[in-house]
């Protein structure tokens, strides 16, 4: 199979993919593929026709890796408009063959994000020619991903591991994975801390309850509605937002619910994300990295909580006058115009992750 790029194709150059060659060899010795993005590079299953993937092409391919679920696959007319478009990106000899439709089978595969791949197979009179479309339809999503990851320079296991580690250990927002009926399947460390605190939601053997009992039924109804919705359809939203009351502060905090369907799974999952107030440990650590002493960092963390100087001084065990002196020094060192600006800066910085 070959994948052409707008720039590489115009120069008559193709990019060789070993994954493409290996997995398509039972169908054909030559396949050409134009991924959904018309500026993406062109891959070929024929080593003699292709070259190594340049860095600029790899960057374009990387953006093609997650088009969503394949939702259509159909044959295209040899010599038709799709064939002509693909031929325009090929070396002259191949272009003439494909445009004429001699000995080629052409297919398109559409994806959830609206993109569409064009795939051309050179038929050699082999035993699978008559069924090549059925076979290609079955293997194309996996074949496509393997080929693009090879050329984009990504190792799936490492990339997935890095993302999971960040969400599980470093993200300060609580992330809960629920089934369609609202049962808790998994959560990150921030989520576990939030559930153990019980001020918004609590976990009782996988059954979640809102801190305000009257909100629990509405929470489960929202999860069920989110699980039923289909991405991009008119019958339901991709994301639902509901507000739950925090038992301690009395504030109504937003909860984001998003439907996720894993390939091969019978039932969709619902991912709930809840923003959390950054903890003081991380605020103090960040303040020290910004040039404050440990004592000044503690004062900055108390100011970030929105406490008055009198309240903050009492918590810090300082006289109010001493606390005021520290507060002025903190504002000067951080070059902040006032308490609100400093608190906002620390809040945004701290929201990027948990304390290590």
Task: Give an overview in words.
With 356 residues, the chain is an alpha+beta fold. The chain has three domains: 6-154, no CATH class; 172-274, Beta-Lactamase (2-Layer Sandwich); 280-350, Arc Repressor Mutant, subunit A (Orthogonal Bundle). It is built from 14 helices and 14 strands. Strands 1-3-2-7-6-5 form a six-stranded mixed β-sheet, with helices on both faces. It has a five-stranded antiparallel β-sheet with strand order 9-8-14-13-12. Helix 11 crosses helix 12 (309-316) and helix 12 (309-316) packs across helix 13 (320-333). The longest helix is centred in the middle third of the chain and has 21 residues, at 132-152. It is elongated. It comes from Leisingera caerulea. InterPro entries: Sig_transdc_resp-reg_C-effctor, Tscrpt_reg_LuxR_C, WH-like_DNA-bd_sf.
Provide key terms for this protein.
disordered N terminus; 356 residues; five-stranded antiparallel β-sheet; 3 domains; Beta-Lactamase; Arc Repressor Mutant, subunit A; six-stranded mixed β-sheet; 42% helix; alpha+beta; single chain; 14 strands
Strand content: 15-25%
List the strand order in the largest sheet.
1-3-2-7-6-5
pLDDT < 50 stretches: 1-11, 232-237
The helix content, as a percent range, equals: 40-55%
Number of helices: 14
What count of domains describes the coordinates?
A: 3
Organism: Leisingera caerulea
GO molecular function, one term: DNA binding
Protein name: LuxR C-terminal-related transcriptional regulator
Keywords: Plasmid
